[in-house]
Here is the input.
Amino acid sequence: MRILLVEDELEMAAALRAALAQHDMVVDHVTTLAEGEEAIATAAHCAILLDRQLPDGDGLTLIPRLRACKQIAPVIVLTARGELGDRVKGLDTGADDYLAKPFAIDELLARLRAVLRRAPVMAPDRIRAGCLDYDWHDRCATIDGVALDLPRRELLVLEALLRRRGRTVQRAALEEAVYGFDDEIQSNALDMHVSNLRRKLMKAGAGLEIHGIRGVGYLLKHAA
Ligand code: CA
Here is the structure.
């Protein structure tokens, strides 16, 4: 998932980048309105985190330009100006959410998930990997039209691996995908879900293999 971060405070930007990277997000960071405009013209982002007080102007002015390029990515405005009038102005300009600094990274992540849930249009409805079709809307995996029966956590593992298929998914990112904030994570539980999923994919002839990368995570790729 690719996020555009428009923020001129470098310390804040570095902290956000690190936190988002841990959650399997790729961050394009720019520090000015002008660079922000260039970034929205050159890449599709799933969401935009936008500071208001930028060296070359008010971040809010980027939103109408974004919409003019038919970019539907949700925008969360991050700003020190937390007063009600500014909040209303931000939302009226077309921002999807508004977060006053200082904020907890966890709150930002929760709000990001919320705006992404409301904007499912960015993701294709279905993907095909090997012989497996996955419907993101129905959350159903099928192989040759036959649905694969997966318990919730195996399904979450599959989704996380499919999102980054062909690349290694870090263990922490998988745990984040599979467990909620309040879940207790038992040390071998993730490996068990992965191993069950691996067996089911193989048995159903998915044409996909899950490789364990020792000390790092797992990788989903086409069967050799
Ligand atoms: Ca600023």
Observations:
- Residues 126-222 form a domain with the Arc Repressor Mutant, subunit A fold (CATH 1.10.10.10).
- DSSP finds eight helices and 14 strands in the chain.
- Residues 8-9, 51, 53-54 surround calcium ion (CB under 6 Å).
- The longest helix spans residues 189-204.
